[in-house]
Amino acid sequence: MDLLMRINKFLNKLLTLTGGAFLLGMILLTCANIFVRQFYIPIRGTFELMGYAGAVVTAFALGYTQLTNGHISVDVLVNAYPKPLKRIVSIINHGVCCAFFSIAAWHIVQKALTLKNVGELSETLRIIYYPFTFAVAFGCFVLALAIFTDFLKAILLQKEVSK
User: Fold this and answer.
1) Domain ranges of the chain
2) Which end of the chain is more exposed for a tag (fewer CB within 10 A), N or C?
């Protein structure tokens, strides 16, 4: 479990730093586009690049947000449950979410492979964009890993309580 937590933290730290670099690039591109637009025409392909970078930033932040419990949750009903039932709901919730994001990552990888095989290019800049799709799939996989870690924690906590 400790090894899994270290891997989880390492991957999420790496993705957070990479996402931050993409976000910085988005800020610089936006500022440059605004500045250049005042004197000349806008920077070509800004809309495309912002979309791809935004997808990477969002996907790379998912796992870290799960790791730090930063996702929004509505738990008004669950808070009224007794502790054993809360744990069971947590185990089921983490299990379903882990399965969902694992399947989502798998399907996104399939989509990326299709884009790669057909040689799909972006409209304006004519850049390949399957690497961005793979990045989103990786972000979903890391989120699934973070949820799986929470799933294991909930199960192990359940076992410790019943001893």
Assistant:
1) 2-162
2) C
